[in-house]
Structures are given as C-alpha cells and as structure tokens.
Design brief:
This protein is α/β, with parallel strands linked by helices and 545 residues long. The chain is built from 14 helices and 29 strands. Strands 13, 14, 15, 16, 17, 18 and 29 form a seven-stranded mixed beta sheet that branches. The longest helix is centred in the last third of the chain and has 19 residues, at 526-544.
C-alpha cells in the first residue's frame, strides 16, 4: 500500500458509533485544542501520548516511512471518533503517528484521564476497551506490524525468545526467519551472522537484540514516578500473579506487575488446558493468558516485562524490590508469584541444542519449527500429555518418554486414555533420554529402551524448581519453596511487634505474601494458582488496615 491508497474502513467495533449522550460524556474527560491541517497530534516513538477525540475536521493515522518502505496510511478518523490503540493502556510508546489532515477541533484525553474513564464509566470504558483491543488485532495483520520486525534463525533460542516476548505482551510485530547460512536482505545493512537476531524498531536495526533491549526502546520497562509508593507489587506474571494483580487493582489498590520474561508463566507454554472451569472444549494457554492480560490493563495494572527482581527488602513500612537493571519498586505490600524454572536433563550438547531443537513449551510458535516432523516429548505429568496430543494433532509423530512405569500415576485419566488411542504417539514408560545427536540442529534422540529415534525437536516437561534463590531473607523449605501462614517455622520479633499471627499466604516478612507454584504446599494446577493469587489479595487488604 502506498501513502496515497485509502485504507479499508474500520468495522463498528473499532470505530463505534456513539450516541449524543455517550459522546458528551466522553468529551468531559478531554481538553480542547484547535489544530491546523498538517499538525501532528503524536509521533511514532513518543513515550507519552494521549487518546484523541475528533470533534471536527479529520485525523489520519500513518505508519511512518521505515527507510525501505514508504509511509502508509492506516486509517482516517472523522468527527465523533477517537484515535488510539491498546498501547495507551500498557504504557507502550506510540508506534504510529497521527496528524490532522483537515483543520478542526480535537480533545486530548491523557493516560491518567483514560484510566479515570475506565474506572468511573463502565459503559464508555467497555466501548473504548473493545475498540482499542480490536484495533490492536487488526493492526497486527497489516502494514503497521513492520514497525517492530525481528529477523533471525528459525530455531535459534534468542530469536524465539524475542518472538515469545512479543506474542505474550501482544505487541504488533512481524518475524522473518532466515534460511540456514543466509543473511538475505540483512547483508545490505552491513549485518553479520554474529549480529543475529536483529530487531528493527521504526526501521532502525538493533543487533543481538534481546527482549530487555526491545522492552526499553518501546517504553515497557519499569520507570518509577516521583516518590511513588504502590499499594501492591506482584512479582511474577503467571496465572497466580495475574489473578492477584487483577483482583488487587479491581479492588482499588495501585498495582504493579513485573515478570522476568513475559506474562504467562508455564501456563502460556501449554497448548491446551481442558480442565479449567468454564472451558468445556479447552483453551490454549496463550488465549487464557492473553485475555487475563487484557483484563489486567482494563483495571489499571501496570505491567512491565522483562523485569527480573533480584532482591526484596523491608524498610520500615515500605518494601523495596530491586530489579536487575537497578530500578527499585517501592510498595506497601508484595505478592511473590515467581513460579519456577524449567528443569533440564544432564546430557552432552544440551545447552547447544537449546538454541536449535530443545523446547520447554508446545505452542504454535514451537510447532512452526517442527511441523510434520518426528519429535520426542519427555515427562509424565499433564503438560507432557497435552503437548504430545497437540503435536500429534498437527502432523508430528511423537515419542513420549516417561521415567515411571505407570503413565497414570501423575497424569489425568482422560489424557492417558487419549494418548493410548492416538496412533501418532508411542509411549515409552520406564525409559530415559540418554543422548542427543545432530549437526547445527537436533536430528536424533537416544532413548535407553528403544535406541536412536529421528527427532527434529525435544520437548522437555520434567518439572521445575521454585524461582526463590534471590529471596535470601524469606523462610524456605529444603527444596526452596516459600513457607507461608501457619507453615512458618516460628514467629519472629516482627510478628510480636505487630501483635498478630501471620496471615494466610504471608511469608516470614510481614506484608510479603506468596502464591502459586512458588509456595510450599500449593497444588501445581492453573485453577489452583488463580485461586491462590486472588485469595492472597484478601490478606493484603487485612495487612494494609
């Protein structure tokens, strides 16, 4: 599409027709300004920008020229329409530009005022949220996606990390996989193989790109406001963390959520969850987490990733969470939902093949790397069974390697029955993976009970260890899980000074709570994690009294 071509009209969800009364209520949140034709209302790259209400005149939304492609017209917005997309809610910098194509009057609604709108007017808030979300979905399928472009080797771990980060944060982007040994158009940018992966942000190449670098450039890294003390900081964005953040924010707590990678945790790595309440036909982890993230934005949760917490300290009535980049989040309470880190097998070349054939999730992203090829899945719990069925349903022949002799000892009965009936899945109980072979990528896996099998991918679901090594001041059990509530070994002087017992989900430091997989005694299920995260908020309220 050239700059002169007219874009397709937005559908009624993306451009809702407001009644006179609704439009008048919406105008009350803005500040009026006159604009001349050609005036920019915001530019791509702006860290802070407004929702624009068009009272009269016309505004055009464009994707700026990126060096190799010309400017593209995305939409024209006339009177009684509003200009903006989902980035307004999550703090992302603008990746499109808006300018007046006809002189007129506009109103600017600041991000703070948008939040007030969401909180105070349910009807208008839902209309605006639906429109912003629908526009984001539409933008990802069009030329706007070129504003964030990743280029790298298809199976490279660092390239996949960028893609997973962007997908979990619902960023508009495109990803281009290079053929083995080729650089394609990158050669014209003076980029070498060692520079991969490359992220193009607004056309500017960033070599050896990481999620952290991209997040910083997009304005998604944590930035403390002057003298800010949040009511609640949630550390970890899995189901427990998202539930805690949503419940906290919906009940009036100023809430910050940080995750070391991206929201979702292990749930986002699950291809199909079939035993979660309300989804009789199952739901993918990606869809479940995507809707939870949208819900978090609706209630005003400030979500930041990748933001790795490295320490947690108590200073009087304020908790301080220090991030890996040195930033400090100050809050009155904290809920640790950091989850767990994937376990690996002690095999030669494991780290090498992590970049080309070993995966810890089975979603569409990983499936594209192994489509219609033989694979090996390792593990004996539900996640391994779900992954095996998902891969088999999408054309892969699967060897499921289970260390135990009874498949049903740790796996739900419905999964065992379906695996037994699935002709594309061969189950090897009482077996172990003992070797990996291949050139630049994984080609074969050695199983002690059957020998070598062809495998383009190895999917590892052998559990995880709690991510608590950074919490040196909290009481943990021998396996690293956090003790909470009545499970705490003994009361400290801090509790005596407070004159109360530890609250449910409260750790050995007052006003620091834990929920989900990281907590000792928790049930390692998505539904249980959601329940714990939301229940922990009840204790937060009691601690703040």
């Amino acid at each position: 599409m050239s700059a002169m071509e007219e874009p397709a009209a937005l559908d009624p969800v993306q451009q809702p027709e407001l009644t006179d009364e609704q439009w008048t209520r919406l105008l009350a949140f803005g500040t009026e300004h006159d604009v001349a034709a050609g005036d920019y209302l915001f530019r791509s790259g702006d860290r802070d920008y407004d929702l624009i209400l068009v009272e009269s005149g016309e505004v055009e939304v464009v994707r700026d020229s990126l060096g190799w492609v010309d400017e593209t017209l995305i939409a024209r917005m006339g009177p009684r329409s509003f200009v903006g997309e989902l980035g307004l809610l999550n703090g992302q910098g603008a990746f499109l530009s808006a300018r007046a194509s006809k002189a007129g009057s506009i109103l600017r609604v600041s991000r703070t005022a948008v939040r007030t709108l969401m909180d105070d007017d349910d009807e208008l808030g839902d209309i605006v949220l639906h429109a912003l979300w629908a526009r984001r979905e539409n933008l990802r399928r069009g030329p706007a996606a070129l504003t964030l472009k990743f280029v790298g080797r298809g199976a490279d771990r660092d390239f996949l990390a960028l893609r997973r980060f962007a997908e979990r944060l619902d960023l508009v982007h495109v990803a281009a996989e290079l053929p083995p040994g080729e650089l394609g158009a990158l050669a014209g940018h003076d980029i070498q193989a060692d520079d991969l992966p490359v992220a193009f942000i607004q056309g500017e190449p960033i070599t050896r790109a990481t999620p952290g670098i991209v997040s910083e450039r997009l304005g998604l890294s944590y930035r403390a406001q002057a003298d800010e003390i949040a009511d609640l900081v949630v550390i970890g964005g899995g189901p427990a963390g998202l539930a805690a953040a949503i419940y906290g924010a919906s009940e009036g707590l100023s809430t910050v959520l940080v995750d070391a990678i991206a929201p979702g945790g292990q749930a986002a790595a699950t291809s199909r969850i079939e035993n979660f309440l309300g989804f009789p036909f199952g739901v993918s982890g990606r869809d479940l987490i995507g809707q939870a993230c949208l819900q978090a934005l609706k209630f005003g949760v400030r979500v930041y990733a990748p933001c790795e917490a490295v320490s947690l300290d108590s200073s009087g009535d304020v908790l301080e969470v220090t991030l890996a980049d040195g930033a400090v989040i100050r809050a009155r309470t904290a809920i640790v939902t950091a989850g767990a880190a994937y376990r690996t097998l002690d095999l030669d070349r494991w780290e090498e093949f992590e970049r080309a054939g070993i995966y810890y999730a089975a979603t569409q992203l990983e499936l594209r790397q192994v489509s219609d090829s033989p694979v090996v899945v390792v593990g004996g719990a539900n996640s391994a069974g779900q992954a095996s069925l998902y891969l088999a349903a999408n054309g892969c022949s699967v060897h499921l390697v289970v260390r135990g002799t009874d498949l049903g000892s740790r796996m739900s009965a419905y999964l065992v029955d379906r695996l037994t009936e699935e002709s594309r899945v061969q189950v090897h109980t009482g077996s172990r993976v003992i070797g990996l072979e291949g050139g630049d990528s994984l080609e074969r896996v050695r199983i002690d009970s059957v020998g070598d099998v062809d495998a383009r991918g190895l999917f590892c679901f052998i559990g995880a260890d709690p991510a608590t090594t950074w919490l040196t001041t909290l009481d943990r059990d021998g396996d690293g899980f956090l003790r909470t509530g009545a499970d705490l070994a003994a009361q400290s002087l801090a509790w005596q000074n407070l004159g109360r017992e530890p609250l449910p989900f409260e750790t050995s430091i007052p006003r620091v709570f834990a929920a989900g997989d990281v907590r000792r005694g928790s049930m390692k299920r998505v539904a249980a994690a959601v329940g714990e995260g939301s229940s922990a908020v009840a204790s937060v309220h009691r601690a703040l009294l």
